[in-house]
Amino acid sequence: MPRSRRSNWVQRASLLGVALSTTAVGALSPPGPQFARRSEGHNLHQLAKRAFTLAGPDDILKSYDYVIAGGGLAGLVIASRLSEDAGTSVLVLEAGLSGDARAADVNAPAGAYYASIVGSEYDWNHPIEPQRFLNGRAGNWPRGKILGGSTAMNAMYLVRPARQELDAWSNMLAADPETRDGSELWNWANLFEAMKKSENFTAPSGEAYEVAGEYPFSAANHGESGPMQLGYPSVMVEAVAGWLPALEAAGVPPLEAPNGGVTLGGFISPSSISPANYTRSYSRSAYIDSLPPRSNLHILSEATVTRLGFSDRVRAQVGDESEALIANRVEFGLGDGSTRFVVGVNREVVLAGGPMGSPKILMHSGVGPADVLNAIGLDVHLELPGVGQHLADHMTAGVVFRAAVPTGGDVRDRDDEFSRSPEFLSFINDAVGFTDIQRLFGDNHVLLQQEVAEIIQNATANDGAGIGDMSMERLVPGGSPEVRAGYLHTYNITAQTLWENVGQIEFLLSLISPGSISIQSAIQHPFSRGRVYINSTEPYDPIVIDPNYFSHPVDRTIIRQGVKVVREIGNALRTAGIVTEEVQPGPDVQSDEALDGYLTNWGANTQYHPAGSCAMLPRKLGGCVNAKLKVYGTANVRVADSSVYPFEFAAHLASATYGLAETAAEVLKEEAFGVPASAKIADSDLGQQGGGGGPRSGAREGGVAVGLLVAVLVGLSGVFVL
User: Where in the cell is it found (predicted)?
Assistant: First the structure.
């Protein structure tokens, strides 16, 4: 049960160091609500010593073994691992800024709420298309445009997928000869180890742990020697202690061993926080800033990859491919892109631009759906209909209650010394819970099963023209026959998860607003799929994003039922004296029709977990990459980010993507091959293009300025395909 509320603050001051030998305990009692905190002598905002070469355009080499497009979560993990071999050269090209100017806001965990970089120059702030099934609502998807990507701006939850989900993915791949090789990499057993490899877990302890109710956790389910720090805030509000009892009262029991392959139940999630100084631990701070100096790793910020160049002189035999394009260079622009450069590729290109960036690069390189490329006059070098398709996202809707206890937002609004302290700025939301279809619908879950089957029967009727307003074009807009086949295949897998002990709704407790407490209901396995595509030949123009939210009506039904359970959780919190009345959508919004109106017109929004636009599926099912992340039809281009997930997981995607990136690095190391010499860019080639050449010519010296591009390509008489 929740502990009784106390009227003062309790501080535990610890002497934290490499060797922890003594602990000093003291008490401070300023007026205010009850938090517990741990303090330390470290500067919260102190930047780690940079251990990589942040290259300028004049410092770039002519070519690198690996060129990584995107310095976000996966890109920096892979760069760090590949550059462990001093004989391997790695270049990371990141479109965003380094983030140094906003380091204080990025490093403070609570900066995600109170000094957010969302909407700033560090945010892609992707616009999405008006949504037909949300009454024409549009909006934006924030994604990190900064070294570290979205790990520099996210809410820092560490929540893994369920065992059943990952095994379903792996088994699906293993069932097809095209994706069998490497399919075992993505099962629970292997990806669990890869996820743990990234982690260094610190268990909760002290007064903060006591005040939060001494919640269950499992150190055995986490790594203990990885670069990414995992821990808990140094302060906790006592309202957190009411979370697990309230969930249990609503039929969602506590999860005794979180992140071990079971997602059902309530728990307090660990967060990517460094317990040494309570700063955000993200891909840059964990995998790059912590490194000793490496001369073989170059990272260039404000460098937007615009397209890949392929050699048409040599095509390689790769697996069952009779021919495969070989990427031998990467074009990128600096700043506003008015000048473009080229860098050579000795081994492989890794696309790590996320669900928007990676398919965008492929399409601008002439790899993607032929109808999309033809519509804007781009040459099709490799027709791959699934590029940009299979897009999925978690949607969420909240219920807001008036708070009967102080929240983190109340403390922040005081604007006093404590509210600006490193201790308080480590306080973030971390209370979650997952429930299944049986709890959501009871005996009516059979009716839901029937509805899921009927909808797809209607959509596929009449050769996909459908019945009534349900058709394959509604469910898979712009999809080729291969993409539609892939949707049906993953549809069946998603439907199967409904009847298993896997989370279908995630509940999240938010304590960051003054005077109010909100609880979110987020669908975890949506049936709705959208797409991304380009409608301009200019790589700096935004990609078109259509999530196609609620195109499948069952998604709305499931979220609606989750909102009803949220109200049950709220009733339990009211009984515990933590909340009072409901503020929104309000007590008058009760019927299914009224709740659907709330969700459609303003209540349902993104949970910021897009995935799937370069799906790891067989090519005949609209897949983009095989089980070893290689783009179909290419010899040396891979995609390694959350765009490869063929369906959504009951999880936050960071943990799975750290595991994916660790796995990708191992695949690249194991499969390292020298691209045939005739397919490499010879010194004379880049020398011609750049007008100079030389051993370090790459960007301005050995690169290609856009004004020279056409003349050079004509002069080379088709040697390069762009």
Answer: Secreted
